[in-house]
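Chain A, query sequence.
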Amino acid sequence: MSHAPDDANLQAASARCLRQLGEHAEARRILEAILQRQPDQFAAVLGMAELLRSGGEPAAAIPFYRRAVADDHQQALLLSATLLTLAAAGRAIAPAHLPPDAGVGHLRIAIA
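Chain A, predicted structure.
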């Protein structure tokens, strides 16, 4: 990170590596710092969701997954992670009303 101290994507990747190494507190510190500067930074939002989920806080992860899923460009990639997190948190899910010809890009879920 010393080569690109302002690169939020690189910092989020570093946080992901730290999370995978079990350094959750340091990963969280990095992600919170990114989100303080750039609240909608996708890699940090998703990173925080994954950190919370893997740290045993699936209910706390849900708002971050919601924010990430709101990005239509990333929605299809995040749907499975969102559903797994909702299930782990014991939350009900239901398909929202969709026209019969709606594609994945129009997929929405209602979170109870």
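Residues 97-107 have pLDDT under 50 and may be disordered. Residues 24-37 form the longest helix (14 residues).
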